[in-house]
Amino acid sequence: MSAGKDRYSRQEQLCKSEERFHTLDITDLKLAEQRLAESEAVVGKKLDAILSPDGGTGSLDLADIIDSQALQSLMDDYYRITGIGIAVIDLSGRVLVACGWQDICIKFHRVHRETLANCLESDTVLSSGLTCGDFKLYRCKNNLWDAAIPIVVGGKHMGNLFFGQFFFEDETLDYALFRSMARQYGFDETEYLAALDRVPRWSREKIDTVAAFYGKLSAMISSMSHNNIKLARALSERDALLLEVRQSEERYRSYIDNAPHGVFIADENGRYIQTNPAACRLTGYDASELLKMSIPDLLSPDAVDDGLQHFQRVKTDGSAAVELPIVARDKERRWIEVRATRLSETRFLGFAEDITERKQADEVRAELQAKLAQTQKMETVGRLAGGVAHEFNNIMAGVSGYAQLTLRKLPQDSGMATNMTQILTLVDRGATLVRQLMSFSRVHKVDAVLININGVIGELLRILEQALGNGISIAFTPDASLWPVRMEQGQIEQIVLNMAMNSRDAISETDQGQFSIRTSNVIIGQEPVESGSTGIESGEYVRLEISDNGSGMDEAAKKHVFEPFFTTKEVGKGTGLGMSMVYGIVKEYNGHISVESRQGEGTVFEILLPRA
CB of 598 within 8 A of CB of 552? Predict the structure, then answer.
């Protein structure tokens, strides 16, 4: 129980302590905060007045404008040299600078309440109405002479510069008046009159000289104060302008850094002087690397001239757009669209957008369109060839029939019999031509069987050696795991032999010719394949690659190589049906054939046949 009571007592004391804490008197704190807020408001208001662009002094007092301490120190030194005092008093009677004041004022007039009121009235009322350049001499309410010179800042009368507490040399003092003042205000008469005798007596010439000097001093104070205000405003305006420029630069930098496209700023020589993160991502270079480069450094070598011409158009016309290939840091060739504009004679801004995927898609689309057009043309030619072959076959059948009937009625050793035999020979050649046209047009059907292309080619090698001659070597590289295909064996032989004959004619007799055959398996549509076969359906194919190192073909010949009756050989050395027959056989089995060739660099044919 005792321990419990102790705990309760400590808790009660703690609660009472907390209660005392919560009822702490914070009046002083609140008053201090209020005074601080009021002071900040006053300072802010005065600062606004100083920095106000209207050129006035606003709510400023004279104490806010002049440097009282510096002026006080200066006038103290001046008084020690000349014995001439001074006072700077604002329009409310507040003394800002004072030196050389006489004892009669310090010890008597400004001590007593009534005589002090006389002093304040003299400083404000009697000296009122002054304008810039004025000088006012007057007797103060306490019967001493004073002189007032206005201090005007920015066209506003803000205070006065006083010198005084003197008598004229030719003036007779009215001691009775000052004795009565001593009795009236309770001054010690002896000490008061002694202080009166110490008041200086000046000639009117000296007063004029002092007035002229203090007039210049007042003008200097006014001018310097006004200039300080103007300087403060100018500095404030400069700071505001610099702040605005910095903020503008920060906004500009933010826009550039967050732009989705690459931004390049170049000088008049094409050297990059500023880039953004998107430009770094686009090119693979960091900013420090790009700032050491120029326009040609980024471009693909074959596009440098186009890039410099584009830059020149921007210089001349003010803006231009172009599509150019660049070489990124990883050596990858990429396409960009650049829209550039002239900022000044030495600054040029360019926005670069990566259009590589679009260009690649355009190239694929163009290639597919070209292949489609070629396929449609070949289909049309095939139908024409089939129709011509059909009609020609009918004609040749009639000629053959009539020739055979005529030959039977003629003596075997007659000249007519010989002519009929020649006619039948020509009919057989025409029949061969018909079969070739039928094969191209895919209207000639044969019985397809499961075959291995390697075996068929292996059996042809001896015939190929004889057909090609000793000047051409043969290289056969078979794939041991080659898939079978379903087609007629003789058609494979026709394909190889026709291509061998073309290669023989393309290889110069003086060169060391090379005729190569390679077989392999490929899968289209599942993994990248080094093949010229684009646009072919996905699936498994047997690839037959036949190449030579002959004279090759130009682009025009490549476009027509599979068309019937097209040949690059001399007249009488070819019918132009060999490659068209190969094309017909390949298409008959839903295969694909393509050619790659350059003049002087040989030719490569690639044939893809569906796996059986």
Answer: yes
* Rg (the chain; Cα; Å): 57
- Burial of 435 per CB tally in 10 Å (0-12, 13-18, 19+): middle
How far, in Å, CA of 326 to CA of 335, rounded? Answer: 6
* pLDDT number for residue 49: 47
Q: What is the pLDDT of residue 17?
A: 43
Residue pair 65/58 in contact by the 8 Å Cβ criterion: no
Q: In degrees to the nearest 10, what's the CA dihedral of 366, 367, 369, 371?
A: 160
Q: Rounded CA gap, 261 and 338, in Å?
A: 10
Half-sphere exposure of 20 (CA within 13 A, CB side): 5
Mode of pairing for the β-strands spanning 472-477 and 513-524: parallel
Beta-strand pair 485-487/539-548: unpaired
> Encoding tokens for residue 433?
């031509």
Distance linking the first and last C-alpha atoms of the chain: 104
- The pTM score is 0.40
Q: Determine the pLDDT at residue 43.
A: 45
Q: Which helix (H) or strand (E) holds 518?
A: strand 513-524
Q: How far is CA 525 from CA 364, 520, 535, 584, in A?
A: 15, 16, 10, 24
Half-sphere exposure of 462 (CA within 13 A, CB side): 2
What's the per-residue H, E or C state across 236-265? HHHHHHHHHHHHHHHHHHHHHHCCCCEEEE
Going from the first residue of the chain to its last (612 residues), give the mean pLDDT of each consecutive group of 10, the final group possibly shorter: 44 44 51 57 47 54 83 89 88 89 92 91 76 82 91 83 90 93 94 94 91 85 72 72 77 80 92 93 93 94 93 93 93 93 93 91 74 61 66 79 85 84 80 63 64 92 82 92 91 86 75 89 70 68 93 82 66 58 85 90 93 91
Helices (H), 85-203: 103, 113-121, 175-185, 189-197
Residues 433, 435, 441, 447, Cα dihedral to 10°: -160
With contact defined as beta carbons under 8 Å apart, do 549 and 600 qualify?
no
b/e for 334-364, b at 16 or more Cβ within 10 A? Answer: bbbbbebebeeeeebbbbbbbbbeebeeeee
In terms of Cα–Cα distance, which of 348, 384, 371 is closest to 565? 384
Specify whether the CB–CB gap between 159 and 177 falls below 8 A.
Answer: no
Instruction: Measure the CA–CA gap between 597 and 553, rounded to whole angstroms.
Output: 6
Q: Give the span between the Cα atoms of 559 and 409, in whole angstroms.
A: 51
- At position 93, the amino acid (one-letter code) is G
Structure token digits, residue 297: 């450094």
Res 337: pLDDT? 94
Cα separation, 569 vs 351, whole angstroms: 53
SS3 letters across 269-320: CCEEEEECHHHHHHHCCCHHHHCCCEHHHHECHHHHHHHHHHHHHHHHHCEE
